[in-house]
Amino acid sequence: MKSYKVLLVDDDIEICQMIKKALDPENIETLTISTGREARNVINSQAFDLIILDIMLDDTDGFQLLKKIQAEDIEIPVIFLSGKQQDYDKILALGMGADDYITKPFSMSVLIAKIKAHLRRSDKIKELQTSSRKITKAPFVLNIDTYQLFKDGEEIFLSSKEIMLMKFFMENPNRVFTKEQLYEKVWNNTIIDNNSIMVYIRHLRKKIEDDSKNPEYIQTVWGIGYKFNI
């Protein structure tokens, strides 16, 4: 079971103890902080999966802490837990970027359910962000961040233009493109140079095909153009 770490910023010691006790069985570690000053220090020095903020603190307010979190480019869910029940405060908090607003007194079971829901959503977003950096079309994997191509786990070294062409093919598998379309879509250039396209295709085949003279992946569709066959 995956474990999480939550920062709870509230000067009500009793509430902090209750929440911490309720989250422990859920495999959620809770660090409780009572002042904005302490919160700013731990936010800079520790990593958290979710933050719960009270609005009214002795030395600051939750809105200022939210600004601090955003200024540090910390992208984690933030839940406001406050005795302030006016719509104005709820709208302000959500408008500033908070993910949820729960008023006191509150249901502990509802709070836990919301915390778990935000953690699940955050996990999914992280997974999507990670997966979106790679294009996988077996046996090929293209790392978008590093522009590295791998075939069956082995790196294939390509030039920048070959990478661009391979990226386009992997994003559009099993579709036929004319030379003109490839030149326009890959290089954003409508000036047609059929010879250049043919040269890049030939070089790319030599690097990714087992037999470049009988290509399995980059296939010629006679009279039309090429397609990436997967």
Automatic annotation (TrEMBL):
Residues 5-119 form the Response regulatory domain. One of its GO terms (molecular function) is transcription cis-regulatory region binding. The modification 4-aspartylphosphate is found at D54. Residues 132-230 form the OmpR/PhoB-type domain. Coiled coil: none annotated. PROSITE patterns: OMPR_PHOB, RESPONSE_REGULATORY. Keywords: DNA-binding, Phosphoprotein, Two-component regulatory system. GO terms for cellular component: cytosol; protein-DNA complex. InterPro entries: CheY-like_superfamily (IPR011006), OmpR/PhoB-type_DNA-bd (IPR001867), Sig_transdc_resp-reg_receiver (IPR001789), WalR-like (IPR039420), WH-like_DNA-bd_sf (IPR036388). This is Two component transcriptional regulator, winged helix family.
